[in-house]
Amino acid sequence: MKKVFNLAVAIPSGALWHADFSMSLVMMMLALQKHPVPGYTDRGVRIINKRTSILPKSRHELIEDALKEGCTHLLFVDTDQTFPAFLVHQLASHGKRVVGCNIATKSLPASPTARNFNPNWIGGDVVYTDQDSAGLEQVWRIGCGVLLIDLSVIPQLQKPYFAVEWHEGMKDFIGEDWFFCQRLEEKAIPIYIDHDMSKQIGHIGSLTYTHDLVGVVEQEAVHVEDKAEGKVETAEE
User: Fold this and answer.
1) Which helix (H) or strand (E) holds 74?
2) Segment 5-32, tens digit of pLDDT
3) What is each CA distance from 178 to 4, 87, 164, in whole angstroms?
4) CA atoms of 41 and 228, how far apart (whole Å)
5) How far apart are CA 145 and CA 77, in angstroms?
6) What is the pTM of this model?
């Protein structure tokens, strides 16, 4: 019996996409056309784009559309991400229901987005992807910037799947991605990050943020940002 990997590449966006994101998407689509996905005998892929200013609405509608199209999996990928061609092959190879990448934030110094549960701090503990990090790690919270979901989990979840809501304990709003993680947690569905793939993800801002910038001290961070904008001369130049 055929085991089909029917993927929806789900892209929430505004009117414009970053060129580097678009090139990453093209190369990934070519890889999906040419190479089988590990563990599956056949594959299909489609791109779904939702352009709204309400991110929870975009993500919710992307999932609903993918289910209507009979997709088995959905890859959330935001338009400010860069990634390698074999992103889907790598994430799918783990056979996990929810697996994504630990993305560096668009700030200097950068910080990872993944968190582990901490009973003494409601914001959780930062999960670092450093030189020694490898393989999979189960985490408590993750961003949805690059996230592969087995859509069989969705009927188990209460709607809405995504929302921005006030967290009284944190005295702050939590984003739609953490809200989705809460929905998964309610049904004991584990979330994983792939450290090896995370090291190959870029987050496009005034420069492309990677884990090389995580923990960079403020003075060094200013130098890095100036260099990226061509304001600093180096010996090599």
Assistant:
1) strand 73-77
2) 999 999 999 999 999 999 999 999 999 9
3) 30, 22, 9
4) 44
5) 5
6) 0.87
